Batch of 3 targets.
Target 1
Amino acid sequence: MISLSMKDGPVGAWLSQHGAELRLSLRMTAAALAAFALAELFHLAQGYWAVLTAVIVIQSSIGGSLKASVDRFIATLGGAVFGAVVALLLPPHNPVILGVALLVAIAPLALLSAVNASFRMAPITAIIVLLGSSTQQAGPVAAALDRVSEIGIGCAVGFAVAMLVLPASAHHLASGIAGRALGHLEELLAALIAGLTTEPDAVQIAALHERMRAASALLEASAKEAERERRIHLASGPDAAPLARTVRRLHMDLVIFGRAAVRPIPEPMRTRLAPRLQQVSDAIGEFLRGTGAALAARRPPPDFAAVAAALDGYGAAMAELRREHLTRDLSDEETGRIFALGFGLEQLRRDLEDLRSRAAEFALPAPVVRGQSNIA
Protein backbone atom coordinates (compact mmCIF):
# COMPACT_ATOMS: atom_id res chain seq x y z
CA MET A 1 0.00 0.00 0.00
CA ILE A 2 1.31 3.45 -0.92
CA SER A 3 1.82 5.67 2.11
CA LEU A 4 0.16 9.04 1.98
CA SER A 5 2.19 10.34 4.89
CA MET A 6 4.33 13.39 4.06
CA LYS A 7 6.94 12.07 6.44
CA ASP A 8 7.53 8.96 4.33
CA GLY A 9 7.19 10.57 0.90
CA PRO A 10 9.45 12.82 -1.17
CA VAL A 11 8.21 15.91 0.65
CA GLY A 12 9.19 14.42 3.98
CA ALA A 13 12.59 13.42 2.63
CA TRP A 14 13.18 16.93 1.30
CA LEU A 15 12.14 18.46 4.63
CA SER A 16 14.51 16.19 6.57
CA GLN A 17 17.41 17.08 4.26
CA HIS A 18 16.78 20.83 4.39
CA GLY A 19 15.83 21.28 8.03
CA ALA A 20 18.58 23.86 8.65
CA GLU A 21 17.51 25.94 5.66
CA LEU A 22 13.86 25.84 6.76
CA ARG A 23 14.75 26.96 10.29
CA LEU A 24 16.82 29.82 8.87
CA SER A 25 13.95 30.95 6.65
CA LEU A 26 11.54 30.86 9.60
CA ARG A 27 13.93 32.98 11.68
CA MET A 28 14.27 35.51 8.84
CA THR A 29 10.48 35.72 8.48
CA ALA A 30 9.98 36.16 12.21
CA ALA A 31 12.69 38.84 12.35
CA ALA A 32 11.15 40.78 9.45
CA LEU A 33 7.67 40.76 11.01
CA ALA A 34 8.96 41.72 14.47
CA ALA A 35 11.05 44.59 13.07
CA PHE A 36 8.10 45.84 11.02
CA ALA A 37 5.89 45.82 14.12
CA LEU A 38 8.44 47.84 16.12
CA ALA A 39 8.99 50.27 13.25
CA GLU A 40 5.25 50.96 13.16
CA LEU A 41 5.06 51.18 16.93
CA PHE A 42 7.83 53.79 17.13
CA HIS A 43 6.77 55.59 13.93
CA LEU A 44 10.21 55.34 12.38
CA ALA A 45 10.74 57.66 9.42
CA GLN A 46 12.06 54.86 7.20
CA GLY A 47 11.10 51.70 9.00
CA TYR A 48 12.06 49.50 6.10
CA TRP A 49 15.72 49.91 7.15
CA ALA A 50 14.90 48.16 10.43
CA VAL A 51 13.15 45.35 8.57
CA LEU A 52 16.02 44.94 6.08
CA THR A 53 18.61 44.95 8.85
CA ALA A 54 16.73 42.36 10.91
CA VAL A 55 16.70 40.00 7.94
CA ILE A 56 20.34 40.65 7.00
CA VAL A 57 21.77 39.96 10.46
CA ILE A 58 20.01 36.59 10.75
CA GLN A 59 22.71 33.99 10.11
CA SER A 60 22.82 30.22 10.32
CA SER A 61 23.98 30.30 13.95
CA ILE A 62 23.68 32.46 17.06
CA GLY A 63 27.37 33.34 16.89
CA GLY A 64 27.06 34.42 13.27
CA SER A 65 24.00 36.56 14.05
CA LEU A 66 25.84 38.16 16.98
CA LYS A 67 28.78 39.15 14.79
CA ALA A 68 26.54 40.45 12.01
CA SER A 69 24.49 42.52 14.48
CA VAL A 70 27.49 44.05 16.23
CA ASP A 71 29.35 44.77 12.98
CA ARG A 72 26.36 46.39 11.31
CA PHE A 73 25.47 48.56 14.30
CA ILE A 74 29.03 49.78 14.89
CA ALA A 75 29.53 50.51 11.19
CA THR A 76 26.20 52.35 11.04
CA LEU A 77 26.97 54.38 14.15
CA GLY A 78 30.41 55.34 12.85
CA GLY A 79 29.10 56.23 9.39
CA ALA A 80 26.20 58.24 10.78
CA VAL A 81 28.35 60.26 13.18
CA PHE A 82 31.02 60.95 10.55
CA GLY A 83 28.44 61.84 7.92
CA ALA A 84 26.66 64.21 10.32
CA VAL A 85 29.94 65.94 11.26
CA VAL A 86 30.85 66.43 7.58
CA ALA A 87 27.36 67.77 6.85
CA LEU A 88 27.65 70.28 9.71
CA LEU A 89 31.10 71.44 8.56
CA LEU A 90 30.11 71.55 4.87
CA PRO A 91 26.39 72.36 4.75
CA PRO A 92 25.15 70.97 1.39
CA HIS A 93 23.53 74.19 0.05
CA ASN A 94 24.37 73.43 -3.58
CA PRO A 95 25.51 70.43 -5.66
CA VAL A 96 29.17 71.50 -5.66
CA ILE A 97 29.43 71.65 -1.88
CA LEU A 98 27.43 68.42 -1.61
CA GLY A 99 29.91 66.72 -3.96
CA VAL A 100 32.84 67.94 -1.87
CA ALA A 101 31.09 66.74 1.31
CA LEU A 102 30.53 63.32 -0.23
CA LEU A 103 34.21 63.13 -1.20
CA VAL A 104 35.34 64.05 2.31
CA ALA A 105 32.93 61.60 3.92
CA ILE A 106 33.25 58.63 1.59
CA ALA A 107 37.03 58.51 0.99
CA PRO A 108 38.18 57.65 4.56
CA LEU A 109 35.18 55.41 5.27
CA ALA A 110 35.66 53.53 1.99
CA LEU A 111 39.31 52.94 2.91
CA LEU A 112 38.24 51.74 6.36
CA SER A 113 35.71 49.30 4.87
CA ALA A 114 38.34 48.04 2.41
CA VAL A 115 40.75 47.33 5.27
CA ASN A 116 38.07 45.82 7.52
CA ALA A 117 34.97 44.35 5.90
CA SER A 118 33.06 44.76 9.18
CA PHE A 119 32.76 48.49 8.40
CA ARG A 120 31.24 48.00 4.95
CA MET A 121 28.04 49.73 6.07
CA ALA A 122 29.84 52.90 7.25
CA PRO A 123 30.23 54.70 3.87
CA ILE A 124 26.69 53.73 2.86
CA THR A 125 25.30 55.24 6.06
CA ALA A 126 27.31 58.43 5.59
CA ILE A 127 25.93 58.80 2.05
CA ILE A 128 22.36 58.33 3.28
CA VAL A 129 22.86 60.93 6.03
CA LEU A 130 24.38 63.49 3.63
CA LEU A 131 21.90 63.04 0.80
CA GLY A 132 18.94 62.68 3.13
CA SER A 133 19.72 65.87 5.02
CA SER A 134 20.22 67.77 1.74
CA THR A 135 16.79 66.85 0.34
CA GLN A 136 14.70 66.93 3.50
CA GLN A 137 14.00 69.56 6.14
CA ALA A 138 15.55 67.40 8.87
CA GLY A 139 19.13 68.36 9.66
CA PRO A 140 22.13 66.02 9.55
CA VAL A 141 21.97 65.24 13.27
CA ALA A 142 18.32 64.21 13.04
CA ALA A 143 19.04 62.14 9.93
CA ALA A 144 21.92 60.40 11.70
CA LEU A 145 19.79 59.65 14.76
CA ASP A 146 17.02 58.26 12.58
CA ARG A 147 19.41 55.98 10.75
CA VAL A 148 21.09 54.71 13.94
CA SER A 149 17.74 54.04 15.62
CA GLU A 150 16.39 52.18 12.56
CA ILE A 151 19.48 50.04 12.17
CA GLY A 152 19.79 49.55 15.93
CA ILE A 153 16.24 48.22 16.20
CA GLY A 154 16.86 45.91 13.26
CA CYS A 155 20.06 44.57 14.82
CA ALA A 156 18.43 44.04 18.20
CA VAL A 157 15.44 42.28 16.68
CA GLY A 158 17.63 40.07 14.48
CA PHE A 159 19.79 38.92 17.36
CA ALA A 160 16.80 38.40 19.67
CA VAL A 161 15.09 36.23 17.06
CA ALA A 162 18.31 34.25 16.52
CA MET A 163 18.36 33.57 20.26
CA LEU A 164 14.68 32.76 20.73
CA VAL A 165 13.27 31.32 17.48
CA LEU A 166 14.62 27.84 16.69
CA PRO A 167 18.11 28.84 17.86
CA ALA A 168 21.06 27.11 16.18
CA SER A 169 24.33 26.90 18.07
CA ALA A 170 27.48 27.35 15.98
CA HIS A 171 29.12 24.72 18.20
CA HIS A 172 26.52 22.16 17.15
CA LEU A 173 26.74 23.23 13.52
CA ALA A 174 30.54 22.89 13.58
CA SER A 175 30.34 19.22 14.55
CA GLY A 176 27.90 18.57 11.70
CA ILE A 177 30.08 20.41 9.18
CA ALA A 178 33.10 18.47 10.40
CA GLY A 179 31.21 15.21 9.82
CA ARG A 180 30.45 16.20 6.23
CA ALA A 181 34.08 17.22 5.70
CA LEU A 182 35.21 13.80 6.90
CA GLY A 183 32.87 12.27 4.33
CA HIS A 184 34.62 14.29 1.61
CA LEU A 185 37.98 13.09 2.92
CA GLU A 186 36.81 9.50 2.73
CA GLU A 187 35.78 9.91 -0.92
CA LEU A 188 39.03 11.67 -1.77
CA LEU A 189 41.20 9.00 -0.14
CA ALA A 190 39.31 6.23 -1.94
CA ALA A 191 39.78 8.00 -5.29
CA LEU A 192 43.50 8.55 -4.68
CA ILE A 193 44.16 4.96 -3.62
CA ALA A 194 42.20 3.69 -6.62
CA GLY A 195 44.52 5.81 -8.78
CA LEU A 196 47.52 3.84 -7.51
CA THR A 197 46.26 0.59 -9.01
CA THR A 198 44.17 1.84 -11.96
CA GLU A 199 44.23 4.99 -14.05
CA PRO A 200 43.28 7.91 -11.72
CA ASP A 201 40.24 10.06 -12.46
CA ALA A 202 41.87 13.51 -12.44
CA VAL A 203 38.57 15.36 -12.91
CA GLN A 204 36.92 13.61 -9.97
CA ILE A 205 39.95 14.11 -7.74
CA ALA A 206 40.14 17.84 -8.55
CA ALA A 207 36.42 18.22 -7.78
CA LEU A 208 36.83 16.42 -4.46
CA HIS A 209 39.78 18.64 -3.51
CA GLU A 210 37.68 21.74 -4.26
CA ARG A 211 34.77 20.39 -2.24
CA MET A 212 37.14 19.67 0.65
CA ARG A 213 38.62 23.18 0.55
CA ALA A 214 35.12 24.68 0.73
CA ALA A 215 34.19 22.40 3.64
CA SER A 216 37.37 23.33 5.55
CA ALA A 217 36.70 27.04 5.09
CA LEU A 218 33.10 26.61 6.27
CA LEU A 219 34.25 24.62 9.30
CA GLU A 220 36.81 27.27 10.28
CA ALA A 221 34.19 30.03 9.97
CA SER A 222 31.77 28.01 12.10
CA ALA A 223 34.50 27.44 14.71
CA LYS A 224 35.02 31.20 14.96
CA GLU A 225 31.30 31.74 15.45
CA ALA A 226 31.27 29.03 18.11
CA GLU A 227 34.10 30.79 19.94
CA ARG A 228 32.04 34.00 20.05
CA GLU A 229 29.19 32.07 21.63
CA ARG A 230 31.56 30.54 24.20
CA ARG A 231 33.09 33.94 24.98
CA ILE A 232 29.77 35.42 26.12
CA HIS A 233 28.50 32.14 27.61
CA LEU A 234 25.82 31.53 24.98
CA ALA A 235 27.11 28.01 24.43
CA SER A 236 29.31 25.50 26.19
CA GLY A 237 31.55 22.73 24.97
CA PRO A 238 35.07 22.28 23.64
CA ASP A 239 36.78 24.74 21.34
CA ALA A 240 36.01 23.76 17.72
CA ALA A 241 39.12 25.49 16.31
CA PRO A 242 41.49 22.54 16.99
CA LEU A 243 39.05 20.22 15.21
CA ALA A 244 38.97 22.57 12.21
CA ARG A 245 42.78 22.68 12.11
CA THR A 246 42.99 18.88 12.24
CA VAL A 247 40.54 18.51 9.37
CA ARG A 248 42.59 20.95 7.29
CA ARG A 249 45.80 19.04 8.08
CA LEU A 250 44.14 15.80 6.99
CA HIS A 251 43.31 17.40 3.68
CA MET A 252 46.92 18.54 3.28
CA ASP A 253 48.02 14.96 4.01
CA LEU A 254 45.92 13.81 1.08
CA VAL A 255 47.43 16.54 -1.08
CA ILE A 256 50.86 15.03 -0.34
CA PHE A 257 49.49 11.55 -0.86
CA GLY A 258 48.03 12.64 -4.20
CA ARG A 259 51.49 13.41 -5.55
CA ALA A 260 52.10 9.67 -5.57
CA ALA A 261 48.73 8.92 -7.17
CA VAL A 262 49.20 10.77 -10.45
CA ARG A 263 49.39 7.35 -12.13
CA PRO A 264 49.46 3.67 -11.08
CA ILE A 265 52.53 2.37 -9.29
CA PRO A 266 54.72 0.06 -11.43
CA GLU A 267 54.54 -3.71 -11.54
CA PRO A 268 55.22 -6.03 -9.82
CA MET A 269 54.80 -3.71 -6.82
CA ARG A 270 51.28 -2.81 -7.88
CA THR A 271 50.00 -6.38 -7.64
CA ARG A 272 51.72 -6.95 -4.30
CA LEU A 273 50.59 -3.67 -2.71
CA ALA A 274 47.05 -3.46 -4.10
CA PRO A 275 45.43 -5.61 -1.35
CA ARG A 276 47.25 -3.69 1.37
CA LEU A 277 46.26 -0.33 -0.11
CA GLN A 278 42.64 -1.46 -0.31
CA GLN A 279 42.77 -2.45 3.35
CA VAL A 280 44.12 1.00 4.20
CA SER A 281 41.34 2.65 2.17
CA ASP A 282 38.62 0.52 3.80
CA ALA A 283 39.92 0.95 7.35
CA ILE A 284 40.42 4.71 7.15
CA GLY A 285 37.12 5.16 5.32
CA GLU A 286 35.27 3.27 8.05
CA PHE A 287 37.09 5.29 10.72
CA LEU A 288 36.20 8.61 9.04
CA ARG A 289 32.53 7.59 8.68
CA GLY A 290 32.37 6.47 12.28
CA THR A 291 34.06 9.63 13.56
CA GLY A 292 31.69 11.83 11.55
CA ALA A 293 28.69 9.99 13.02
CA ALA A 294 30.22 10.24 16.51
CA LEU A 295 30.65 14.01 16.16
CA ALA A 296 27.04 14.44 15.07
CA ALA A 297 25.73 12.28 17.94
CA ARG A 298 28.22 13.64 20.54
CA ARG A 299 29.45 10.13 21.35
CA PRO A 300 32.99 8.71 21.62
CA PRO A 301 34.81 8.12 18.32
CA PRO A 302 35.48 4.60 17.00
CA ASP A 303 38.55 2.56 17.89
CA PHE A 304 41.74 3.22 15.95
CA ALA A 305 43.04 -0.36 15.99
CA ALA A 306 41.81 -1.30 12.49
CA VAL A 307 43.47 1.77 10.94
CA ALA A 308 46.74 1.09 12.75
CA ALA A 309 46.69 -2.56 11.65
CA ALA A 310 46.04 -1.63 8.01
CA LEU A 311 48.85 0.94 7.97
CA ASP A 312 51.22 -1.49 9.71
CA GLY A 313 50.30 -4.10 7.12
CA TYR A 314 51.20 -1.73 4.30
CA GLY A 315 54.52 -0.92 6.00
CA ALA A 316 55.30 -4.62 6.38
CA ALA A 317 54.50 -5.24 2.69
CA MET A 318 56.83 -2.42 1.64
CA ALA A 319 59.58 -3.79 3.86
CA GLU A 320 59.17 -7.18 2.23
CA LEU A 321 59.45 -5.65 -1.25
CA ARG A 322 62.68 -3.95 -0.24
CA ARG A 323 64.12 -7.20 1.11
CA GLU A 324 63.33 -8.80 -2.24
CA HIS A 325 65.09 -5.86 -3.98
CA LEU A 326 61.98 -5.08 -6.05
CA THR A 327 62.48 -1.36 -5.46
CA ARG A 328 66.06 -1.36 -6.70
CA ASP A 329 65.19 -1.05 -10.39
CA LEU A 330 62.76 1.83 -9.96
CA SER A 331 63.51 5.14 -11.66
CA ASP A 332 64.23 8.23 -9.57
CA GLU A 333 60.74 9.53 -10.31
CA GLU A 334 59.08 6.26 -9.25
CA THR A 335 61.25 6.09 -6.13
CA GLY A 336 60.15 9.61 -5.22
CA ARG A 337 56.52 8.67 -5.65
CA ILE A 338 56.89 5.62 -3.41
CA PHE A 339 58.61 7.77 -0.77
CA ALA A 340 55.82 10.38 -0.99
CA LEU A 341 53.26 7.61 -0.58
CA GLY A 342 54.89 6.32 2.60
CA PHE A 343 55.40 9.81 4.00
CA GLY A 344 51.78 10.74 3.27
CA LEU A 345 50.50 7.64 5.05
CA GLU A 346 52.65 8.35 8.12
CA GLN A 347 51.38 11.92 8.29
CA LEU A 348 47.86 10.62 7.82
CA ARG A 349 48.25 8.21 10.73
CA ARG A 350 49.42 10.98 13.03
CA ASP A 351 46.60 13.35 12.10
CA LEU A 352 43.94 10.63 12.25
CA GLU A 353 45.04 9.89 15.82
CA ASP A 354 44.76 13.60 16.54
CA LEU A 355 41.29 13.61 14.94
CA ARG A 356 40.23 10.85 17.33
CA SER A 357 41.40 12.97 20.29
CA ARG A 358 39.55 16.03 18.99
CA ALA A 359 36.36 14.04 18.40
CA ALA A 360 36.59 12.57 21.91
CA GLU A 361 36.46 16.13 23.31
CA PHE A 362 33.03 16.59 21.70
CA ALA A 363 31.58 13.41 23.24
CA LEU A 364 29.06 13.89 26.01
CA PRO A 365 29.95 12.25 29.33
CA ALA A 366 28.49 8.79 29.82
CA PRO A 367 25.31 8.83 31.92
CA VAL A 368 25.74 7.69 35.49
CA VAL A 369 23.42 4.82 36.43
CA ARG A 370 21.78 5.50 39.78
CA GLY A 371 22.97 3.14 42.43
CA GLN A 372 25.99 2.00 40.41
CA SER A 373 29.26 2.11 42.28
CA ASN A 374 32.59 2.92 40.66
CA ILE A 375 34.42 0.96 43.35
CA ALA A 376 35.63 -2.39 42.08
Target 2
Amino acid sequence: MRTRNIFAIAAALWLTAGCVSIQPGGDERFGEAVRAANRAQTINPQGAPNRDLAAGIDGSAAKETMDRYVNLFKAPPPTMNVINIGGSFTGQ
Protein backbone atom coordinates (compact mmCIF):
# COMPACT_ATOMS: atom_id res chain seq x y z
CA MET A 1 0.00 0.00 0.00
CA ARG A 2 2.88 2.33 0.84
CA THR A 3 4.47 1.73 -2.56
CA ARG A 4 1.17 2.54 -4.24
CA ASN A 5 0.93 5.90 -2.40
CA ILE A 6 4.49 6.81 -3.32
CA PHE A 7 3.79 5.93 -6.94
CA ALA A 8 0.59 8.05 -6.94
CA ILE A 9 2.42 11.06 -5.44
CA ALA A 10 5.27 10.69 -7.93
CA ALA A 11 2.82 10.48 -10.83
CA ALA A 12 0.96 13.58 -9.60
CA LEU A 13 4.20 15.53 -9.29
CA TRP A 14 5.32 14.37 -12.72
CA LEU A 15 2.01 15.40 -14.32
CA THR A 16 1.94 18.82 -12.67
CA ALA A 17 5.52 19.52 -13.77
CA GLY A 18 4.11 20.42 -17.19
CA CYS A 19 2.32 23.40 -15.64
CA VAL A 20 5.53 24.99 -14.39
CA SER A 21 6.75 27.94 -16.44
CA ILE A 22 10.20 27.24 -17.83
CA GLN A 23 10.90 30.88 -18.66
CA PRO A 24 8.98 33.08 -16.21
CA GLY A 25 9.93 36.38 -17.89
CA GLY A 26 9.45 35.18 -21.46
CA ASP A 27 6.31 37.16 -22.18
CA GLU A 28 7.54 40.28 -20.47
CA ARG A 29 8.63 41.94 -23.74
CA PHE A 30 6.20 40.15 -26.07
CA GLY A 31 5.31 42.35 -29.06
CA GLU A 32 8.08 44.89 -28.43
CA ALA A 33 9.44 44.47 -31.96
CA VAL A 34 6.06 45.36 -33.48
CA ARG A 35 5.69 48.41 -31.25
CA ALA A 36 9.23 49.54 -32.12
CA ALA A 37 8.51 49.16 -35.85
CA ASN A 38 5.31 51.22 -35.49
CA ARG A 39 7.18 53.96 -33.65
CA ALA A 40 9.89 54.01 -36.34
CA GLN A 41 7.31 54.38 -39.14
CA THR A 42 5.33 57.19 -37.52
CA ILE A 43 6.42 60.57 -38.88
CA ASN A 44 4.73 62.75 -36.28
CA PRO A 45 3.58 60.95 -33.11
CA GLN A 46 1.83 64.12 -31.86
CA GLY A 47 0.03 64.63 -35.17
CA ALA A 48 -3.55 64.61 -33.89
CA PRO A 49 -3.37 67.89 -31.92
CA ASN A 50 -1.69 69.61 -34.90
CA ARG A 51 -4.16 72.06 -36.44
CA ASP A 52 -1.98 72.86 -39.50
CA LEU A 53 -3.59 70.15 -41.62
CA ALA A 54 -2.54 71.31 -45.08
CA ALA A 55 1.06 72.35 -44.62
CA GLY A 56 2.88 72.83 -47.91
CA ILE A 57 -0.06 73.32 -50.30
CA ASP A 58 -2.15 76.41 -50.91
CA GLY A 59 -5.83 76.59 -51.83
CA SER A 60 -5.46 77.09 -55.60
CA ALA A 61 -2.99 74.22 -55.96
CA ALA A 62 -5.25 71.93 -53.94
CA LYS A 63 -8.28 72.88 -56.07
CA GLU A 64 -6.42 72.23 -59.34
CA THR A 65 -5.17 68.90 -58.04
CA MET A 66 -8.66 67.78 -57.07
CA ASP A 67 -10.11 68.98 -60.38
CA ARG A 68 -7.51 67.00 -62.32
CA TYR A 69 -8.20 63.94 -60.18
CA VAL A 70 -11.96 64.12 -60.81
CA ASN A 71 -11.48 64.71 -64.56
CA LEU A 72 -9.38 61.55 -64.86
CA PHE A 73 -12.49 59.52 -64.11
CA LYS A 74 -14.76 61.56 -66.40
CA ALA A 75 -12.52 61.19 -69.45
CA PRO A 76 -9.75 58.69 -68.81
CA PRO A 77 -6.69 58.92 -71.07
CA PRO A 78 -6.62 56.44 -73.97
CA THR A 79 -4.89 53.19 -73.27
CA MET A 80 -1.97 52.02 -75.34
CA ASN A 81 -1.47 48.53 -76.68
CA VAL A 82 2.17 48.17 -75.70
CA ILE A 83 2.61 44.46 -76.40
CA ASN A 84 0.43 44.58 -79.52
CA ILE A 85 -1.43 41.39 -78.74
CA GLY A 86 -4.07 40.76 -81.36
CA GLY A 87 -2.96 43.72 -83.45
CA SER A 88 -1.65 43.65 -86.98
CA PHE A 89 1.98 43.68 -87.95
CA THR A 90 1.36 45.67 -91.12
CA GLY A 91 1.28 49.05 -89.35
CA GLN A 92 -2.36 49.80 -90.18
Target 3
Amino acid sequence: MKVSSVSGLVLFAKDLDKTAKFYNSLGFRFGKRTPDRLTLYVNWFSLDFTTVGKDDKAEIQKENALTNKGAGVYIMISVLNVNEFYQEVVAEGFKPMGQPQDKPTGKREFVLRDPDGYKLVFFQKL
Protein backbone atom coordinates (compact mmCIF):
# COMPACT_ATOMS: atom_id res chain seq x y z
CA MET A 1 0.00 0.00 0.00
CA LYS A 2 1.34 3.43 -0.95
CA VAL A 3 -0.06 6.93 -0.60
CA SER A 4 1.02 9.33 -3.33
CA SER A 5 0.13 12.70 -1.74
CA VAL A 6 -2.14 14.66 0.57
CA SER A 7 -3.98 17.21 -1.54
CA GLY A 8 -6.10 19.13 0.96
CA LEU A 9 -8.35 19.43 3.97
CA VAL A 10 -12.08 20.01 4.40
CA LEU A 11 -13.02 22.27 7.32
CA PHE A 12 -16.28 23.61 8.73
CA ALA A 13 -16.78 27.39 8.59
CA LYS A 14 -19.52 29.51 10.14
CA ASP A 15 -19.16 32.49 7.78
CA LEU A 16 -17.63 31.87 4.35
CA ASP A 17 -17.33 35.59 3.59
CA LYS A 18 -15.32 36.18 6.77
CA THR A 19 -13.19 33.10 6.02
CA ALA A 20 -12.57 34.25 2.44
CA LYS A 21 -11.48 37.72 3.59
CA PHE A 22 -9.14 36.26 6.24
CA TYR A 23 -7.37 33.84 3.88
CA ASN A 24 -7.24 36.39 1.05
CA SER A 25 -5.35 38.73 3.41
CA LEU A 26 -2.81 35.94 3.98
CA GLY A 27 -2.21 35.42 0.24
CA PHE A 28 -4.18 32.24 -0.44
CA ARG A 29 -5.42 31.79 -4.02
CA PHE A 30 -9.16 31.49 -4.56
CA GLY A 31 -10.65 28.47 -6.26
CA LYS A 32 -14.33 27.66 -6.53
CA ARG A 33 -17.03 29.41 -4.46
CA THR A 34 -20.62 28.31 -4.02
CA PRO A 35 -23.15 29.44 -1.40
CA ASP A 36 -22.07 26.67 0.98
CA ARG A 37 -18.45 25.96 -0.04
CA LEU A 38 -15.19 27.84 -0.55
CA THR A 39 -11.97 26.39 -1.95
CA LEU A 40 -8.61 28.10 -1.40
CA TYR A 41 -5.17 27.03 -2.58
CA VAL A 42 -1.50 27.31 -1.75
CA ASN A 43 0.25 25.83 -4.77
CA TRP A 44 -1.62 22.55 -5.35
CA PHE A 45 -2.80 22.06 -1.73
CA SER A 46 -6.43 23.00 -1.06
CA LEU A 47 -8.39 24.09 1.97
CA ASP A 48 -12.10 23.51 1.39
CA PHE A 49 -14.41 25.31 3.79
CA THR A 50 -18.02 24.25 4.03
CA THR A 51 -21.03 25.45 5.95
CA VAL A 52 -23.44 23.02 7.54
CA GLY A 53 -27.18 23.39 7.13
CA LYS A 54 -30.32 21.78 8.49
CA ASP A 55 -30.48 19.45 5.47
CA ASP A 56 -27.06 17.92 6.15
CA LYS A 57 -26.77 14.47 7.72
CA ALA A 58 -27.22 14.31 11.50
CA GLU A 59 -23.62 13.05 11.91
CA ILE A 60 -22.26 16.15 10.13
CA GLN A 61 -24.52 18.49 12.11
CA LYS A 62 -23.36 16.88 15.36
CA GLU A 63 -19.68 17.25 14.40
CA ASN A 64 -20.21 20.87 13.34
CA ALA A 65 -21.78 21.66 16.73
CA LEU A 66 -18.60 20.68 18.59
CA THR A 67 -16.91 23.66 20.23
CA ASN A 68 -13.37 22.28 19.92
CA LYS A 69 -13.19 21.94 16.12
CA GLY A 70 -9.62 21.30 15.07
CA ALA A 71 -8.42 20.50 18.59
CA GLY A 72 -4.89 19.13 18.35
CA VAL A 73 -4.61 19.92 14.62
CA TYR A 74 -2.04 22.43 13.36
CA ILE A 75 -1.98 23.37 9.67
CA MET A 76 1.68 23.92 8.74
CA ILE A 77 2.30 26.67 6.16
CA SER A 78 5.77 27.40 4.87
CA VAL A 79 6.81 31.03 4.25
CA LEU A 80 10.09 32.42 2.95
CA ASN A 81 10.79 34.70 5.91
CA VAL A 82 8.70 34.05 9.01
CA ASN A 83 9.74 37.29 10.75
CA GLU A 84 8.66 39.43 7.80
CA PHE A 85 5.45 37.43 7.38
CA TYR A 86 4.70 37.90 11.07
CA GLN A 87 5.11 41.67 10.72
CA GLU A 88 2.76 41.68 7.72
CA VAL A 89 0.16 39.63 9.63
CA VAL A 90 0.29 42.05 12.57
CA ALA A 91 0.09 45.05 10.19
CA GLU A 92 -3.13 43.52 8.76
CA GLY A 93 -4.58 43.69 12.28
CA PHE A 94 -4.38 39.99 13.10
CA LYS A 95 -3.35 38.85 16.57
CA PRO A 96 -1.04 35.80 16.46
CA MET A 97 -0.74 33.56 19.51
CA GLY A 98 2.83 34.77 20.10
CA GLN A 99 5.89 35.97 18.27
CA PRO A 100 8.04 33.78 16.00
CA GLN A 101 10.15 31.31 17.97
CA ASP A 102 12.85 28.79 17.11
CA LYS A 103 11.61 25.25 17.79
CA PRO A 104 13.52 21.99 18.41
CA THR A 105 12.04 20.74 15.12
CA GLY A 106 14.45 23.00 13.22
CA LYS A 107 11.77 25.55 12.34
CA ARG A 108 11.06 29.13 13.32
CA GLU A 109 7.30 29.57 13.63
CA PHE A 110 4.27 31.35 15.01
CA VAL A 111 0.60 30.38 15.30
CA LEU A 112 -2.44 32.31 14.08
CA ARG A 113 -6.02 31.16 14.54
CA ASP A 114 -8.48 31.63 11.68
CA PRO A 115 -12.04 32.94 12.22
CA ASP A 116 -13.27 29.46 13.18
CA GLY A 117 -10.37 28.75 15.56
CA TYR A 118 -8.28 26.50 13.31
CA LYS A 119 -4.57 26.88 14.09
CA LEU A 120 -2.28 27.93 11.25
CA VAL A 121 1.45 27.55 11.91
CA PHE A 122 3.56 29.77 9.67
CA PHE A 123 7.15 28.59 9.59
CA GLN A 124 10.49 28.64 7.88
CA LYS A 125 13.21 26.04 8.20
CA LEU A 126 16.29 27.16 10.09
